[in-house]
Amino acid sequence: MRITRKAAFAAVAATSVLALAACSSSGGGTDDETDDAGINTETSINIAWNQPFYSANGTSITGNATANNVILYMLNSGFNYYDADLNLVADESFGSYEKVSDDPLQIKYTFADTAKWSDGTPAGPADLLLEWAAQSGKFNNVEAETDPETGEITNQDALDAGVYFDASSPAVALIEETPEIDGKSITMTYTKPFADWETAIAVNLPAHVVAQRALGIEDAEEATDALVAAIEGGDVADLSPIAKSWSTDWNFASMPSDEDLLVTSGAYKISEFEQEQFITLTANPDYEGDHKAVFNKVTVRYNGDPMGQVQALQNGEVDLINPQATADVKTAVEAIEGLEVESGPEGTYEHVDLQFTNGGPFDAATYGGDAEKAHKVREAFLKTIPRQQIIDNLVKPLDETAEIRNSFTQVPGSPMYDAIAEANGQGAAFDTTDIPGATALLAEAGVPAVTVRLLFDPANTRRQNEYELIKASAAQAGFDVVPYTVQTDWGTDLSNATSFYDAALFGWQSTSTAVTESDANYRTGGGNNFYGYSNATVDGLFDELQVATEQADQERILSDVEAELVKDAFGVTIFQFPGVTAWNPEKIGNVSKLTIAPTIFYGFWEWTAGEAASE
């Protein structure tokens, strides 16, 4: 989905057009405390979040995660955004876009004069051209290979010599012709109609900085021209270092030494970053767009313990929280005097996915290529996952109406959910824990004892509790479920250490409402398909979905996709996240959370700062 994939993914993650452009805060300052950009330099806010930022490239396979994208939402601008009712709204202070042709589908993007990077370089067509080159996969001529024992890359020399962009978007791959640049405009031509073209591609990294780093060119304009020439000419010698820079340079988990990596196009810039502790964003005084900063400083403090976030809010260490919700969390925040508290369902859903090609218990290669035996082991394991018990023990105390989610692509209550959930067969197959059925399948497969390495966030209390319930249930059928030992951080390991875990327990959070958002999760080689899952029928159905504009057709196609996932024992969905958001109204006002990413960071330009927000 371009679902934010590693936290929530993931992907997861727009009333009327937002009426207020951000103006200077009234947060207790005087005219002497306001800079030339109209920003009150004395205002600051602290926000708690559960997973640290680790990449400024939110569209790479490595960096596409809610943990990164909620921060990048405040750092960078784009052609559109979602409003509070999830309607797409154009940000004309960054640029405009229009469909100039239906046959073939052609989209023209034009950059506004106010679209600029924080180093003063204008944002322009080269930035979008670079993203097309990365996301289309057109120029990739080598893939990363890893040692199954260590996870280390074994073909680094080939990667260095070839072209490898760490990205993949089925939507952008439909743009096969090199986009045409004309002044401040760029036009993209699709090979066929595409329903979600408005959200298919966006500006991501500064092309001039990528080129400066990759090609050793100091002048920004000269570097940009060289990058455009390399892409338009398919110059492998230049595209190789460009791809390497795009893929790796913007992955950092603490303050980088090179300030060029901190260049942004939006209202904020990174000013401080302590690994695993906090990241501080400071208002960009040179930003000329409509979404200006209200708070001069926004510090996001990392704490994976939900009750720890509540305690930090009570102590005044943070001013806004949206922790993983439990009944204890809700009770605790409601007992703290003076807070604003809101609760309700969120856009993230919990699920378990299985590895198909990692040499583990669910891989046919483990059984000499016997796909049916591997399928029986997968199905047996899924029968042991106590979905209803997880909901009863961990979710219903917070939301007594909570039910099992039975769709891989639809949020409960959405127009297509009921029909797709009924058609896919997941409820009939896995709603009830079936230990005798699981035991029988393992016996048929001739593997009565199986070890399953489960990847999950070890710092997340609810995930720890889910793991214990899964372990106890699965043990009754002969599965020994053990926690995967995190190599770097669990989010990075989700895509980079696939040989080391057999199943993953995490959440997807959408970043858009696109009907094709799930494509990257289940398509062969899709950017969010970390498990080697491949089904030609599913791939063909997603091809059909790309051009389906009628809801009835979309519902039929997605029903068929999900039925294939259930038949293949790909994994199971468990529940829609319940949510609790709490904040101190003396520090921050006008908080409005979206059910997709960027969640609580939505509309930061419309936040208000109270008297207590001054430093």
From TrEMBL:
This is ABC transporter family substrate-binding protein. GO terms for molecular function: peptide transmembrane transporter activity. PANTHER family: MONOACYL PHOSPHATIDYLINOSITOL TETRAMANNOSIDE-BINDING PROTEIN LPQW-RELATED, PERIPLASMIC BINDING COMPONENT OF ABC TRANSPORTER. It comes from Cellulomonas humilata. Keywords: Signal. It holds the Pfam family SBP_bac_5. InterPro entries: Peptide/Ni-bd (IPR030678), SBP_5 (IPR039424), SBP_5_dom (IPR000914). Residues 98-513 form the Solute-binding protein family domain. One of its GO terms (biological process) is peptide transport. The lineage of its organism: Bacteria, Bacillati, Actinomycetota, Actinomycetes, Micrococcales.
